[in-house]
Amino acid sequence: MMNMDTRRKINFYLNPERNEADRYVCEVIDSLPQGERGQVWRAAMLAGFALRKQDSRLPNLLAELLTAETSFADIIQLMRAVFPEEMARTGWSVPAGPEATAPQTPPVPSVEDETRDNARQMFGQAVPGGNRKA
């Protein structure tokens, strides 16, 4: 009897020319040693599924929020919007320091900007550059 290989190979494309989050991820990937990339990709995907298990919106919301300037404070704010009661019980607070207070540079307008801005507005975050139309 032959054993079936149950492993899965997953392929997808990142579009750094059209998406700010993809651009950031490509820059990080390029900075990693070749031998570490597969494990980082696997860990990132599994982390996304762990977030999805808690709320199916989280991976998409975090992906839209991701830029080179995304801070821990931004992530905590998003988590507070999605899980207000749970986050209040944890007593987590935004860390003081440059990461928490650094102003965000407005991104170059792209097709994804409107979606990202809508997500930010949905969770009470300021939209860089005001409301823009892509």
List keywords for this structure.
134 residues
The gist of it:
With 134 residues, this protein is mainly α. The protein has helices at 20-31, 34-54, 58-65, 72-82, 84-90, 98-101, 113-122.
Record the SSE blueprint.
Layout: H1 20-31, H2 34-54, H3 58-65, H4 72-82, H5 84-90, H6 98-101, H7 113-122
Question: How does this structure look, described?
Answer:
By secondary structure, the protein is an all-alpha fold. The protein is 54% helix and 0% strand. The protein contains 7 helices and no strands. Helix 3 runs antiparallel to helix 4 and helix 4 crosses helix 5.
Q: H/E order of the elements?
A: HHHHHHH
Mean pLDDT: 83
Approximate strand percentage: under 5%
Strands, count: 0
Straight-line N-to-C gap: 58 Å
Derived structural class? mainly alpha
The shape, in one word, is globular
- Roughly how many Å is the radius of gyration? 17 Å
